[in-house]
Amino acid sequence: MSTTTRYQCTECGSTAAKWVGRCGQCQAWGTVEEVGAPAAGVRGPAALAPSTPAQPIDQVDAETARARPTGVGELDRVLGGGIVPGAVVLMAGEPGVGKSTLLLDVAARTADVARGPVLYVTGEESASQVRLRAERIGALRPNLLLAAETDLATVLGHIEQARPTLVVVDSVQTISASTVDGSAGGVSQVREVASALIAVAKRTATPVILVGHVTKDGSIAGPRVLEHLVDVVCQFEGDRHSRLRMVRATKNRHGATDEVGCFDLSDAGIVGLADPSGLFLSGSLTQVPGTCVTITLEGRRPMPTEIQALVTPSTLSNPRRMTSGLDSARVAMTLAVLQSRLGLTLGGQDTYVSTVGGARAQEPAVDLAVALAVASAARQRSLAEGVVAVGEVGLTGDVRSTVGIQRRLAEAARLGFRRVLVPQGGAKELRPVGDLEIWPVADVVEALAAAGTVPARG
After folding, report:
1. pTM of the model as a whole
2. Does the N-terminal or the C-terminal CB of the chain have fewer CB atoms within 10 Å?
3. How many angstroms separate the CA atoms of 131 and 414, rounded?
């Protein structure tokens, strides 16, 4: 059969009549490859009678799509209650963040409650190395099967032989198919390996978790189509200098993508944190100038975060403005508002603003807490005990409303705080929570008065 030559992007699938170095659709470099295509006019495949007729939607069995708990509550929270039979989950993260440790713990806990074996395929480490890690974190189980393989056909043979209730492949970039040219981790290899594992998962209703590498810019390595093929894409995040790890879903066909799972990674293994507030609060028993607590939202999950500020005289012509865990642009804007609207002298001062415990507070709702912490540090006056501040600060000094105020109030009350400063706009619709005092404030001047750093106006 005669063919014509065409060119296709391996990232987005767009086609072109001639080769180009940069795809015109996704703007990726070096992804356009030559492929053969049937000549124009060639007939497509003939229609075949389906082996299973289409069913009315109300007669389709929905129980086969019910999520089953993995035994790790924080991961189940992100997945939407558990993992669905036949689902394929892609877990991506930076090297050394703890992906293998987490999934080995997931495999062990699933083996405790599963009716069949759990298969863990490692292509990056030897079986003895994985066994030592399992011993260290307490993940040794008699029905947890371990296979050190890098050949796709052999991996599929293990799945057919063991009939597992869960398969973990660490990682998809290390498995190669002998029928496809190229080395393991290449675009063609990753696509073929993922397609074969997805086909087995759907045919046998076996859930599969794939570990994926990331590039230096944080995106998942391999073809972009990999993220479209799988059912769930999870990002495993964390600073290697901090014990906190977070899992969030960027794609989830079986649930929402606004949940976050928190984990504590230590030498003894990885543990889910149902209440991670202890990591983000200093726990100081005395009020110290330059500190203020806020409640951030990670997806739908409220997270208490302590903001600390330090203002000291500068010996430099350009004073330092250092931030950690915060949006430096928003902090600079807040400092300008304090200097312009409140008359704080910050021009000749070095200003350092940071979060506690390596938390990341990037949303605008932390502006008010930053303003109170900096003002408290500049005037060397502590805030009132038990104060929490939530709100966005505008350039005019006004405090603007933000999302999820009610959930933040509930978390503040649960942690035992006494007073929450909230934006005046929309405060009338807020419901009281226990003995928590809700103080609506219109601008930063009122907020400072309510927090106890300056005398009240009027």
Report:
1. 0.77
2. C
3. 41
